[in-house]
Design goal:
- This protein is mainly α.
- The protein has a domain of about 60 residues.
- It contains 3 helices and no strands.
- Helix 1 packs parallel to helix 3.
- The longest helix has 29 residues.
- The radius of gyration is 16 Å and the shape is elongated.
C-alpha cells in the first residue's frame, strides 16, 4: 500500500504558502505592520494544535501553518519596505 502522507503534506504546504502571500500584501495595504500580533497569536494557536493532535497529516499541516504565520511577520516588515520603495502601492486612505 502506498503512503500518501508526504505528498498530501507537501501539496497542502504549497497551497498554504501560495494563499498567504496575497494575505500579507493585503494586510499591509489595509492595516500596515501593526497587524503582526494577529499573525503571531494565530501562529501560536496553530503550533499548539500541532503539538496536541496525534494524527500525522493534521499535525504536520498545522505545524506548517504555524511556521508560515510566523514567517508572515517578517514578510509584513519586508512588504512595508517594498511599499516605501514604491514597488507596491500605498493605501491612500491610511495615515503613514
Amino acid at each position: 500500500m502506498l503512503n500518501w502522507t508526504g505528498i498530501i503534506i507537501g501539496v497542502v504546504s504549497f497551497l498554504i504558502i501560495g494563499i498567504f502571500h496575497p494575505i500579507v500584501v493585503k494586510s499591509e495595504y489595509y492595516f500596515g505592520e501593526k497587524i503582526w500580533p494577529l499573525f503571531f497569536v494565530l501562529g501560536l494557536i496553530a503550533c499548539a494544535g500541532s503539538l496536541m493532535i496525534h494524527e500525522p497529516i493534521c499535525s504536520g499541516i498545522l505545524g506548517i501553518l504555524s511556521c508560515v504565520l510566523f514567517w508572515c511577520i517578517r514578510e509584513l516588515k519586508e512588504q512595508t519596505e517594498r511599499v516605501r520603495k514604491g514597488w507596491f502601492p500605498k493605501n491612500p486612505k491610511r495615515k503613514y
